[in-house]
Amino acid sequence: MDKREFKRVLDQVKPTAEQEQAMLDRLLTEQKEVKPMHCMKKMTAAMAAAALLLMACAFTVATGLDQRILAYFGGTQEDAQLLAPGFMAVDLTSTAENGETVHISQVYSDHRSVAIVGELTVSDGTVLNQDAYRFDDWHLRPKGTDGNEPDGGYGSYGTYGGAEIWTDDDPDDNALSFLLVYHYTAGNFDSDSAELTWANEIQCFELTLGNLKGCSEGEAWSSAPVLAPGEWTFTIPLSGKDFSWTLKPEQPIQLAEETVTVEEIYLSPVGLSVRLANESGNLNSLMKNWEDQENSGNPWGSSVVLHDQNSRTIEGSMPYSKYSPYTGEMLLTFDEIYDPAQFQGGTVMIMGQSFSLDDLQPVAD
Known about the structure:
alpha+beta; single chain; about 20% helix; 19 strands
């Protein structure tokens, strides 16, 4: 998503002046009597939609949810409540040796993705007039309590950059705001057996950002100058709430007379993840052969197709699709925000085999 397209999407989720006034009027007025549930059945569709919009807008005002998070995930004001369990307002600051400061104010996270909103302030006299910006280096590491490293970290993890979007609200000042999006997976790796077991009790992330670069249109990043040298480190908390919907199918996949187990189908408002397992430790060769022979050499994750309870195909992009001798995992990030409840009764196609989502259930906190 380029800057022009992102701004267009951002304008779509921005509340109008009338909506802002309605939100303020509601917030400054005493709460009125709540009607019984049976009265809701008589409410027209237009009234219900207006009420949902007002609730979503009130949520963004009360929490300060940055509109860029909604816009990146393809959402609107009505979707704000779906992201609420994963949203946290934070106040984290890191200053480099030369005085350049990065402040992080908001975090959205689930068990596969994390979005971070912040601002970088450079020294007086530094000119910020480039067409694009990015951190030249970044490192995100999930941390938890069930890891096998002394510091509580995980023995194996992967992080994938989803986006780095910069906004210069005032070209005359010395600050830039940003939205960073990462996708991740974590597990414990046994070096003796090469077996990877998934780790879900993630408490926080260690985030390191390094060297802000600026690039003019048409210029290569490799030759772009470093505008703000430095390294900034943070411990990013998670909301602590697992608001996903999951299913652990008992239905196996047979590949070359071996059994591949679908360990988990995971759904959040912004994505679908599928995890595979093979007890014999032959998953590498099994998956490579299947990709070459049955999937035209494409990653196995590209075979995963999600349909909701109305048989609608859900579109998205795939940040990663991978496998090791014992496990495999893929992630599909949606083009829009969805209520995971609407996938109950749907299906997921995995490597040509259909899996029912009739038993899909929310994870209990």
